[in-house]
Amino acid sequence: MITKEKTTKNNKEKDNNINTSLSGRYSINPIPRLTLPQTGAPAQAAYQIIHNELQLDGKPELNLSSFVTTWMEPEVEKLMVENLDKNFIDHFQYPQSQIIEARCVNILANLFNAPDAANYAGTATIGSSEAIMLGLLAHKWKWKARREKEGKSTAKPNLIIGAEVHVCWNKFAKYFDVEARIVPMDKDDYTITADDVEKLIDENTICVGCVVGTTYTGQLDPVGDINDLLTRINKEKGWDIGIHVDAASGGFVMPFAYPDVKWDFRYERVRSINTSGHKYCLVYPGIGWLIFRDVEDLPEEIIFYVNYLGQTESSYTLNFSKPATGILGQYYNFIRLGHEGYTAVMKSILENAQYLANRIEENDNFKLLGAKTILPIVTFQLKGGESFTVFDVSYAMRQKGWIVSAYNLPANAESVYMLRVVVRETFTHDMAAAFMKDLHEVYTALNAEDKKTKKKSLAPGKKEKSSVNVC
Fold this sequence. Notes:
The protein is of the alpha/beta class. The protein folds into 3 domains: 12-57, no CATH class; 78-334, Aspartate Aminotransferase, domain 2, CATH 3.40.640.10; 345-458, Aspartate Aminotransferase, domain 1 (Alpha-Beta Complex). The protein is built from 13 helices and 15 strands. Helix 6 crosses helix 7 and helix 11 (325-362) packs across helix 13 (429-458).
């Protein structure tokens, strides 16, 4: 959310303008920052002003906080640029783009092991946040229809999730009036369990959320255990509660790195799955995917039909217009890499993640959070005893160019502070070694300043506040 920008009284005129030396070359007046300029600027000047300002951003290749893809091949970039002007929702005008979306949905449904007899369905979204909300809306309306058919109240629907879920799950609960029954984390266990779910479930539960690749630690919820629980409870109670799997992070790692591990439509209670095309599907943002096990899991009542774009078209999205570029980039990757290509990429990423995890484990100053790197996500903590925190380490690493997440876990495990590195395709073995070198230097500098500060605090007289430059 953006609010009105404040300027100082003495520098109001100066603060309100983008002052650039380019005015001498391009004969442009100072450009207002917060209001539309009266006259435009030459194209070269407009480009250079914005280009120069964006140098203040971090380097995407060194952003180890983000799951989002930061590199694609030149050929697909050319393809995407060629189609920047296509609004995907206009299927009448751009029918081939819709056909390509349908191909992607079929590829994903098969990759996620949809049953041969199933009449699966799916859609492209802006990202996994939209996909999750659409998936959960379908679960809510399916639950609502069943309750109405039975002549029962449709008030107070609830959703069971773990505290480790992405914030978009809580947004769904608030925006669409569903009670979020949240399983708190444990200090030693960062996923939900079937026992946790059984304590919270009732006839008003629309579905249970399972995460394959949690945001905090990259772990997997026990989909199989929860599937067995729901199978038993549904049979005993006559309910029809399903699972939505949030595979935003793991949906394109698991099929290639661990093809025999079940988490997807091989479990009968898994009714919908989302994945992020712009994460390990290797596409620039923003593109996500939502796949339903069967078209019956998508209630007809929440599909809209519009006829003002040239023909009657169905729409199941939270927004309307969206670019076709992400869908085309996804299909390029599918036909460019194939199963063998994705397998090679995922195994390479995991090898680099494991290398980094091993190096951190060997370092006396840090300890890994979790024994095994399942997804390409490495989480670790300080060994303890330092006066500085993971936030200090993160800030100091930023001074060296690395962007590393630092945070503490949710309720019941809030005392656990950690750092997280997301290993992507561009993070090489050599970069991991360079990262460890910088991490060691940062820790050494912070530790030296820590000891210096402690020594001063023991001396009589005034205490000085110290600072350190680790670059």
